[in-house]
């Protein structure tokens, strides 16, 4: 039995959530659980639950609630009345709040490595502010106290992670905390240190600028002495240099396997092969290849101090779309924090860089679920210090012929199968019904996945006899003509599936239509056409039945075999088409809301699918939440784009929605991966405007990859399509891209002609945001060509219009152009002010590329004013920004630093 006070008050018993009653009854239960194992006087209970407004006969009402709580707990916990009050006698570790505090206290005496893991375990218990849905003064005090304890624990965790040299996750966590608590200097202090540890000093300095201004605006004060001292140390370069190797070592292994049993012989073989370069573990589906490899990898990870890489290659994914080697290599480069400007465009060059990175490192690489040798070969390091573990249903004879060590995994033997059941349902229960256990093992054909499914049902129904479960299973298999689970585990899946209630069974079928790699609870609710609250219980039932896995709070994934089985069942579902449409609607419309927050003055799409009924709309209310939503979902959206057929309008809309996010993050390859299917979808729809849009930004992507001629050709195609369709706004969009391309190529006179044409087009169309951005482009190019007075006039018109409209994105660009114009006219003071305004606005918007450009210009302005020290600081920050997003301008700015 497990009690949860973080988030909603919940009781989980036998793998299922119990009904804990009304908010008032939840308040009574919470008032007892907060002091679990201690007497709580009746007057204290009344005060906690009703504050100062108890009802008449309050004691009778309280006794009624206590009686219902006793019935709820049954024989699993005791609620006793003692002289000092009521005591809920449960182990403190069964209450998440007390377990949290136990772990925090335990962590104080541990080594840094164990302390980090223990604090992370404690923090993972947090599901939200305590006692959600319960109101009252005492409840507010509990929430405040435990929220502060959680924040203190997060700071402790961040400190120890930085001592271990692992800044990446610290940055993500504390960036979110700083957004949630914008005046909390302690979070900014940790975040700035983490950014420095990641080699991102420019961002750390930017954070200081932001918090200093925020404190001045909100409180009329400045940063405290600790933050000031950290800022000074950063500026003077006095902080220790970021640690390398172990400090940046990726640790990507999935959690160790619950209830792992047997395989002693194979574990021994792996131990003897630890000094090998490549091991191929093969066997039938569901035989436990991944479990074996992940379990052994956890045992030996200390032997690979430079990192552990893990990737599910999805070689036998039911959608038929294995991970491409190019995508896998880019993911591994990201794992080692390779700046994007160092990542070459060509695949072979990327593989070479990947192998160079591993040349002097000892890294464990797990390539799970490989389809064939061709998928694996590019991912093999050249270093003999690394070990690669490959799992596959295929024996990968080609790799074995080239020196890989084969390890065939067969079915469990009877003793191992029995041990697995003991680990999952308990030795006492297994010993009590030995014959039934033997029958279950026989019926499951000793296949681990099938045994795990049966064990899950037994564990969630502790009062069911194993003999009855064996009878159920036998009857289910007989209905399937005696199917052999060793070759067709669907027989066992079917048995488990048939035990589900109707709502859970329908959800399981519909989730089989989701392409993965994972899904959130709101996407699941949308597919089912249910409110989120109504989809939680069936998801919990599916997880309890081992039919889905909750990999992190609120996010789930399937085993390939289970997803294929669910998809097969869904083929007979009359609702499957509507479910797919709701799934697509969830990603399209929530993505659109997030995208609009990031750029309110973006172009409008040429037609957008209607929002289907019963789609969950996310509460995305600001830019930080918009970015967080995209960060969580963009890989899923890419999978949806590349694996969805028959929904061309939605596929195109998803690519359109993702484009600005990909540009913002510098995800060039991913942008192409989304736009190419969108182009095909537009062609099938016969929609020239949508085809033109895809051509335009595919062309722009080619320009970024250095394929300027190919990019220009595609931009020309897009321009022709827009003109043929009479779409003036689309025409202006392509002209902007042409102007940008020519300016990058230093063809300023040609670029000016396109900018002036673009201005005419937007004015004729009455599109004010486009007019403002075109005015800026004309002014900027005049400045580059030496017409500084004209530049100032155009840019001033642009900034006036953009400030009137509230177009922050456009204004950020124009401030930079104004700075250039003033600088060329010799007014260096105004130039610095304008460039700094551009830096500030771009930073607030999260536009890293534009911010890097503005920082470069700011450095130039400082140099022109004779302030060389400030110029170097700005240029250094620009270089770091460019490197983070992989834009080659970094080399040009680096040259300014000498």
Automatic annotation (TrEMBL):
Q: Membrane-spanning regions, if any? A: none
Q: Which SMART domains match?
A: BTAD, TPR, Trans_reg_C
**What molecular functions are annotated in GO for this chain?**
ADP binding; DNA binding
Q: Which GO terms describe its biological process?
A: phosphorelay signal transduction system; regulation of DNA-templated transcription
Q: Where does this protein bind DNA?
A: 1-90
Superkingdom of origin: Bacteria
Keyword list, A-Z: DNA-binding, TPR repeat, Transcription, Transcription regulation
Q: Where are the TPR repeats?
A: 812-845
Domain OmpR/PhoB-type span(s) in chain numbering: 1-90
InterPro entries assigned to the protein according to its UniProt record, in alphabetical order: AfsR-DnrI-RedD_regulator, BTAD, OmpR/PhoB-type_DNA-bd, P-loop_NTPase, Sig_transdc_resp-reg_C-effctor, TPR-like_helical_dom_sf, TPR_rpt, WH-like_DNA-bd_sf
Which family, according to UniProt? Answer: Belongs to the AfsR/DnrI/RedD regulatory family.
Descriptive protein name: DNA-binding transcriptional activator of the SARP family
> Which organism does this record belong to?
Kibdelosporangium aridum
């Amino acid at each position: 039995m497990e009690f949860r006070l973080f988030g909603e008050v919940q009781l989980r018993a036998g793998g299922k959530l119990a009904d804990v009653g009304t908010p008032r009854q939840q308040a009574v239960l919470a008032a007892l659980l907060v002091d679990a194992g201690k007497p709580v006087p009746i007057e204290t209970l009344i005060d906690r639950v009703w504050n100062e407004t108890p009802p008449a006969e309050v004691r009778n009402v309280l006794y009624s609630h206590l009686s219902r709580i006793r019935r709820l707990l049954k024989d699993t916990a005791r609620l006793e009345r003692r002289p000092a009050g009521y005591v809920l006698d449960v182990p403190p570790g069964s209450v998440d709040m007390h377990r949290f505090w136990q772990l925090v206290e335990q962590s104080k005496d541990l080594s840094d490595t164990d302390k980090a893991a223990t604090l992370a375990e404690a923090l993972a218990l947090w599901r939200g502010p305590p006692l959600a849905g319960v109101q009252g003064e005492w409840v507010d005090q509990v929430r405040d106290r435990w929220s502060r304890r959680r924040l203190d624990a997060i700071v402790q965790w961040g400190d120890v992670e930085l001592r271990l040299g692992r800044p990446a996750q610290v940055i993500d966590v504390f960036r979110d905390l700083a957004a949630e608590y914008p005046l909390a200097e302690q979070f900014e202090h940790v975040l700035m240190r983490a950014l420095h540890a990641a080699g991102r000093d420019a961002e750390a300095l930017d954070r200081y600028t932001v918090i200093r201004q925020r404190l001045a605006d909100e409180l009329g004060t400045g940063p405290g002495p600790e933050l000031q001292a950290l800022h000074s140390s950063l500026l003077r370069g006095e902080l220790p240099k970021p640690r390398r190797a172990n400090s940046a070592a990726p640790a990507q292994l999935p959690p160790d396997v619950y209830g792992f049993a047997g395989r002693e012989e194979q574990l021994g073989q792996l131990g003897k092969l630890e000094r090998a370069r490549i091991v191929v573990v093969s066997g039938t589906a569901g035989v436990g290849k991944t479990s074996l490899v992940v379990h052994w990898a956890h045992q030996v990870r200390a032997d690979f101090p430079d990192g552990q890489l893990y990737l599910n290659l999805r070689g036998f994914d039911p959608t038929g779309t294995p991970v491409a080697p190019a995508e896998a290599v880019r993911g591994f480069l990201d794992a080692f924090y390779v700046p994007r400007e160092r990542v070459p465009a060509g695949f072979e060059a990327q593989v070479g860089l990947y192998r160079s990175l591993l040349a002097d490192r000892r890294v464990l690489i797990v390539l799970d679920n490989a389809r064939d040798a061709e998928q694996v070969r590019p991912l093999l390091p050249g270093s003999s210090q690394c070990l690669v573990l490959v799992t596959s249903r295929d024996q990968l004879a080609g790799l074995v012929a080239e020196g890989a060590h084969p390890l065939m995994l067969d079915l469990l033997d009877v003793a191992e199968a029995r041990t697995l059941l003991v680990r999952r349902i308990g030795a006492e229960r297994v010993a009590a019904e030995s014959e039934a256990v033997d029958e279950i093992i026989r019926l499951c054909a000793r296949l681990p996945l099938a045994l795990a499914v049966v064990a899950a049902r037994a564990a969630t129904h502790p009062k069911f006899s194993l003999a009855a479960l064996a009878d159920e299973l036998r009857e289910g298999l007989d209905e399937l003509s005696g199917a052999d689970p060793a070759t067709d585990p669907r027989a066992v899946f079917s048995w488990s599936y048939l035990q589900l209630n109707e709502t859970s069974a329908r959800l399981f079928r519909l989730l089989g239509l989701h392409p993965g790699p994972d899904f959130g609870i709101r996407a699941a609710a949308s597919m089912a056409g249910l409110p989120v609250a109504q989809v939680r219980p069936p998801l919990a039932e599916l997880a309890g039945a081992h039919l889905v896995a909750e990999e992190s709070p609120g996010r789930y994934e399937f085993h390939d075999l289970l997803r294929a089985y669910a998809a097969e069942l869904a083929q007979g579902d009359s609702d499957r088409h509507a479910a797919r449409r709701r799934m697509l609607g969830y990603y399209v419309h929530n993505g659109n809301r997030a995208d609009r927050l990031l750029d309110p003055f973006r172009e409008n799409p040429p037609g957008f699918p209607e929002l289907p009924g019963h789609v969950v709309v996310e509460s995305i209310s600001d830019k930080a939440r918009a970015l967080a939503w995209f960060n969580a979902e963009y890989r899923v959206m890419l999978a949806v784009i590349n694996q969805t057929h028959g929904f061309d309008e939605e596929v195109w809309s998803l690519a359109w929605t993702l484009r600005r996010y990909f540009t913002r993050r510098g995800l060039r390859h991913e942008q192409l991966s989304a736009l190419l299917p969108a182009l095909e979808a537009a062609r099938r729809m016969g929609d020239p405007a949508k085809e033109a849009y895809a051509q335009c930004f595919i062309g722009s992507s080619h320009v970024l990859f250095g394929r300027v001629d190919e990019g220009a050709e595609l931009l020309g195609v897009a321009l022709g399509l827009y003109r043929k369709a009479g779409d003036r706004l689309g025409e202006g969009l392509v002209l902007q891209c042409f102007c940008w391309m020519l300016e990058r190529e230093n063809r300023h006179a040609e670029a000016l002609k396109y900018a002036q044409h673009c201005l005419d087009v937007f004015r004729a169309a009455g599109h004010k945001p486009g007019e403002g951005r075109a005015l800026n482009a004309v002014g900027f190019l005049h400045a580059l060509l030496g017409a500084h007075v004209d530049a100032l006039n155009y840019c001033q018109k642009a900034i006036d219009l953009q400030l009137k409209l509230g177009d922050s994105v456009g204004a950020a660009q124009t401030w930079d152009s104004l700075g250039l114009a003033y600088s060329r006219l010799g007014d260096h003071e105004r130039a610095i002010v304008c460039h700094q305004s551009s830096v500030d606005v771009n930073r607030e918007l999260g536009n890293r590329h534009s911010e890097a450009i503005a920082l470069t210009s700011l450095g130039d302005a400082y140099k022109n004013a004779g302030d060389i020290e400030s110029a170097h600081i700005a240029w250094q920050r620009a270089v770091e920004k460019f490197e983070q997003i992989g834009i080659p301008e970094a080399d040009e700015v680096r040259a300014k630093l000498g």
